[in-house]
Write a structure and sequence with these properties.
The protein is of the alpha/beta class. It has ten helices and 17 strands. A six-stranded parallel beta sheet has the order 1-2-3-4-5-6. A hairpin with an 8-residue loop joins strand 14 and strand 15 (about 435-440). Helix 9 runs parallel beside helix 10. The longest helix has 19 residues, at about 120-135. The radius of gyration is 22 Å and the shape is globular.
Length: about 475
């Protein structure tokens, strides 16, 4: 339990230590994987042991709320630390409802792995989970994400984890039924779709046909009568998508996000970047293999965050996994010491680089325009190999400036047009003592120095 508490503090805490340093990165949203039941199937699930999940639903239709105990514990810890939003997501319907009796698409075509007669039952199951978690564990899910990467080609052939493809017509059918179910029970939980596997599937087609592409237009244009969801009462007018495979080449990272932003704006839709970790095409940091606790991966991910927030206008930014092994998919690193039987979990510069954003930019914040050297070009504050600057204003009036120095040389800058007269400077670098650490308090921003390969956050309190 002590290990869980320590992990929860690093992920969720918004407290400061006696020296004014953040104790954690203050995440404002925590994602809960509502399992499909591959654990109960064991090796016959065709799913790797480490990615199997339990299902609250039993074959006889009853519920066992003692399942997924570890995840439920972390939901409670998130609530205890004041995490404002909780989200439940599903990779697959319960195995009792799927067409092949599995939580993976093994042996099937590229349609939704849900039996034709189980759409209503699946919507009821999701609402039951919302009600059950609150009744049994005191946890209310603010959001439900009923599908995960339904447009991802990896989902079509049967991966070694829970998942299923779905066409946009199947997504629309399920989402309408879930909306009706939530409304009929008076539940305030909001629906988030479609957890797209690739930004290109959201605004066009990519490695698929039109039955999966053009998702923004399909779900939010009234002309798309068969798939239009913009009139649903419990669905937020936003798209959730994953930024895998769109981060290289570096110049394309910006171009892709600008195109996404323009398409979203055309249809009046907000955007969440709802999952990413490192993949094989992230060659600049050696791909996904091999965990890296240094600023090499931390800066690379910070650059991605900057581009998603600044060029795609993302209103939320979410990482895939809290704890990982020897792969670049965890904010924290888990390993076993030879002399101990229990796991050892340590932090990383990646964790704290995300904290430069999550700890201080809070829900409801607005992003402020930033220009460099008197330029009116909104791209001028972004040099992907040098300085990248973004600024925000919270609902309480505090202002936040996050600056990434990607280069190998120090930089000294001045910041104009800001109101607070006192700024706290927090820094993350490869220095062992600088992990979102309070460095100094400034009374002006006429001369701010950024060491090489570092990230700073400037927090200005309202006057």
């Amino acid at each position: 339990m002590q290990v869980q508490n320590n992990v929860a503090r690093l992920l969720f805490s918004s407290d400061m230590d006696i020296n004014g340093n953040p104790e954690g990165i203050g995440l404002s949203l925590w994602r809960f994987n509502i399992g499909a039941g591959s654990v109960e199937q064991g090796d016959s699930s065709y799913i790797n042991n480490g990615t199997r999940t339990e299902c609250f639903l039993n074959p006889d239709g009853t519920y066992d709320w003692s399942k997924q105990s570890g995840q439920c514990s972390f939901l409670k810890l998130a609530k205890k630390h004041g995490v404002p939003y909780l989200l439940g997501f599903l990779n697959s319907p319960p195995v009792f409802y799927t067409q092949n009796g599995l939580a993976t698409n093994t042996g099937r075509d590229a349609t939704y792995n849900l039996r034709e007669d189980k759409y209503e039952a699946f919507a009821k199951f999701m609402a039951d989970v919302v009600v059950g978690l609150e009744k049994e564990h005191g946890i209310r899910l603010d959001y439900l994400s009923p599908l995960n990467e339904p447009d991802g080609h990896w989902n079509w052939i049967g991966p070694k984890q829970e998942g299923t493809p779905a066409t946009k017509y199947e997504i629309a059918r399920l989402t309408r039924l879930l909306d009706d179910e939530l409304l009929s029970r008076g539940l305030s939980t909001r629906i988030i779709i479609p957890e797209s596997s690739d930004y290109r599937c959201m605004m066009s087609t990519h490695m698929t046909g039109p039955e999966r592409g053009y998702e923004i237009q399909s779900f939010f244009s009234p002309d798309s009568t068969l798939t239009y969801l913009g009139n649903l009462k419990r669905m937020s007018r936003l798209m959730a998508g994953h930024s895998y495979w769109t981060n290289t080449p570096v110049e394309y990272m910006k171009e892709c996000r600008k195109a996404l932003r323009d398409t979203l704006k055309k249809y009046g839709v907000d955007f969440w970047q709802s999952e990413v970790c490192m993949m094989g095409n992230d060659e600049e940091i050696g791909g996904g293999n091999g965990y890296d606790r240094t600023m090499k991966t931390a800066l690379y991910v910070a650059r991605m965050i900057h581009h998603d927030l600044v060029f795609a206008n993302a209103r939320s930014w979410q990482w895939w996994r809290a704890i990982g092994g020897n792969y670049k998919d965890g904010l924290l690193f888990k390993y076993k010491k030879p002399e101990t039987a229990s796991d050892t979990i340590v932090d990383s510069k990646l964790l704290w680089s995300l904290g430069n954003y999550s700890r201080f930019i809070r829900p409801g914040a607005v992003r402020l325009a930033v220009f460099r050297n008197n330029s009116q070009n909104p791209d001028s504050a972004t040099d992907p190999y040098g300085l990248m600057c973004s600024a925000y204003k919270n609902e309480d009036g505090s202002q936040i400036i996050v600056i990434i120095n990607y280069a190998m040389r120090p930089e000294t800058i001045s910041v104009e047009g800001v109101q607070p007269s006192e700024w706290r400077l927090y820094r993350t670098s490869d220095n062992v003592n600088e992990s979102l650490s309070l460095i100094e308090t400034l009374h002006h921003l006429n001369s701010v120095t950024l060491p090489p390969r570092s990230i700073i956050t400037l927090l200005g309190q309202p006057m």
